[in-house]
Amino acid sequence: MGAAYVPHRTTTSADVAPQHGGAGNGEHAQNSVVLAFLPTGDAGKTAVGARGRTPDAQLEAELASVPGLSVGIMSATQGVYQTEQFLLDVTQGARISSSDYPTHHPPAMSVRAIGAGAVVNGWHAARRRAEAAPQLLRPGLLASSIPGGAAYAGITGEEDIDAIAGAGLSGQVAELSLGPARTLAARVAALNRRRRLLIADLPGGVQGHDDLRALGAGRAAGELLIVVQRAPQGTGGELLWVAAAGLPGGGGRELSSQTTNERGLIASVDLAPTILDHLGLRPIPADMRGDPIHTDGELHSASLRALEARLRVIGGRRLEALGFLLGAWALLLLACARRRPARAWAMRTGALGVLWAPVAVLITGALEPSAAVELATITLACLALGALTDLLLAWPRAPLAPALVAVAAIVVDAFAHTQLLMRSLLGPNPILGARFYGVGNELKSGLAVLVLAAVAGALYPLAQSASGRRRAVIVMAGAGVLLAVVEGSARVGAGVGGVILVCAAFAVATVMLLPGAVTRRRVLIVFVSPIVGLVALALLDLLTAHGAGHYTGSILHARSAGDLRDVIVRRYGAAWDELHNHAMPYATAVALAYAAVGYSRRERLLAPVAGDPLWRAVFAGGLTAGVVGALVEDSGPLLFVVAIFALGCVASYLWGGEITRHSPAQPAERSQSAREPHAAPRCAEAGSTPAR
Question: Which terminal Cβ of the chain has fewer Cβ within 10 Å, N or C?
Fold first, then answer.
């Protein structure tokens, strides 16, 4: 157990997979990989003098100071960080949410020396747990794909759980070396001459930094060095620092992969494919769902540290920001409650302000301010934009502005790689480990409602004539196609469920604008439109993302009906879990109640626009977006709640125009005043009225 190194051990058949194509030839015969774990703590502070930095920032500075290393942020797990689950995910090159397993936590695991190697206690229980999950997971696939298996070098008396990363399918580590910290570098060098994959635990403090520099300086040609932060359980290990030397492109750069499509960000499942790809062991097993890591642009440590800090606070500020915005809207309504015109202005301004939220969060995503500043900035920006839009655009056309700006900003952000959406409070929230880019579930159904309202506002009251209705049909269908491309394209929205809900929502809205009664043919159009959208999305993925899009990767590349079944089971399992999450049961119940009341009193709801067909189509299409989104997305009820909330804001805006009129029973006067712009009033205390 305490020897400096141990002799070569004959591996078992369970630990060694058949030779892959490319292994053993001259080009890759000497390639090797060292996967080293470096603990968080005072190492960076004492080694590189990073006074005042957090431990994570200290570690990034330490990694960046080592010549030849490229640095990135790694999404360690999907869900709450658990060390054993993270290591199992590394060995299998695939992962799912902990809630998708039969038990949320992996079994207790430990490493026990046997002869020259080791065995992982609890491995068979971990294998059984993985086999019961709704995806083909094979713990140990990485080491078993490498002839000879993997070795582990650790420190006597220190935790050696990281040896799990070198275990094969049977849970055995081919070679084990434990000894004092001062001999670690020498033992790593000795093992590296015999094994193509070596797992090593570096010590903390200055000794660990010195060993890391020694590994970097002594790295031979053809050797890939990967350094991963070791985070104790329960310390926010969902995001870990990672560095690599030996990748094409050289050192001093930022890491990325096709899994995340984000500069500076990779996932734990990318480690196994990267290792096998470097060793020339191709093709990479289909059960590994990650992608090889690559370098992407010059290293900017300050920017990376800011990104890591930003990703950690996004989730906690979402509901706070919504609460502040709604609270400010309520205060505005109270302040303007004494006079009817002022109250109407406050209704319109607040409703439009909420519709501007997808744009306002991009502003704070760029600024990355403190919590208090961010909440205040979002609230003030939303209300200011709402008031300005109400002033410049005549009722009911104002939703056109936030819709156009929001969609354009998302597209520009995607193609410019500015990462504003990812850093925003309404982005995909990469710390959860399920989505790293594109339009997140919080926006999909809300964007559909926003664009529907924009079309109706822009065309109102065009649909009141037969010729105008035909034009409205064309515009509504065209807007649906464009939004489906934005939400579904691998380079922009990357949302399969977004395509389905957008196609269904706009198909319903378009069919409702057609003259005459609903027929079987029109119902068929509604049901077929999502299928047509998925086929178009597949072609778009193949043309623009070379088949690497989320849809083609998860659906079209499925090898069997079982794979498709697993995708469906995981999605609905996650949706069911979301329904039980925190306040979601109450929010869902309230949303269902509002939807039922709105439908039963739809004529009253549409009174401000005299039951105009365009606005009737908006509410029908928006409700469809929420229902379909809840059925096809893994966030389930969240999409329904967001859609109903957005429709409520649209209704508030419409009624903010209605209650300024003296007689709601005079459609001619209502139609005329709808075309007249109005100015924002001061509140009741000022005693002014809006100009109409």
Answer: N
